[in-house]
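Exercise 7. Predict the joint structure of the components listed below.
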Amino acid sequence: MTTQMLEQSAPADVVRTERTRGGRCYQPNVDILESPGELTLYADMPGVRSGGVDVRFENGTLTLCGKVEPRQKEDTNFLLREYGIGDFHRTFQVSEVIDAARITAEFVDGVLIVHLPKVEAARPRRIAVKTN
Amino acid sequence: MDRLFNDLLECTPPAAPVRGTFPQVNVWEDSDSLVAEAEIPGLTMQNVEVFVLGDELTIQGKRGETSGEGVTYHRRERGLGEFSRVLRLPVAIDADKVSAELRDGVLTIRLPKAQAALPRKIQVKS
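Solution:
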């Protein structure tokens, strides 16, 4: 049995959530791994200070936010501009039974790591088979 | 109009997992230096090398795998492995004074311009 972790996509008729803060917003690249005991999510959020990260888990929805302060002045004379700078935001629907109280997160070198432990009942259990 | 608003409000999707170039670089200039900035989350100065040879700036390093025993991947969007990026700089720089800083996954390289490339004010005799 594998756990499903789907990205939430709003149906066309649903009003989209709007941000109050202006500026650009990016979806971080993520790796999501499942081990027998937990789901682990790694999200690349370069430029976010550790105080600027916000992780929420509510009704099976995991929301990641990272606030990025502008690093250059607006009138900077760019010679090469391959990427834009802005906040990070991404939402996931987690269908597996996650023990919300034990979710932990750390932020190291621009990478957000979220540990989502499964509730005991959802962990795979090995059943000993008795032989005569 | 609808489309315009969607473009403005939605988050830009992540770049494709396999990118042509890594890392992506921004370069800007002020009066006495060039500054190059690259996003390399998850790396520390131990696994990144920056060097300047002539007018070429090289950024290289290696990003390790986020793997463990008996794990399965649901998503794998973050690149991994070795990378090397070479940029040709538009002005001569003073290689001895180049400095680099890595903070929260953002690498900033300050490249002071060579004396010969600095603007010089010419006295106009009357």
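Discussion. The beta strands of chain B are 25-29, 33-39, 48-53, 56-63, 72-76, 81-88, 99-103, 106-112.
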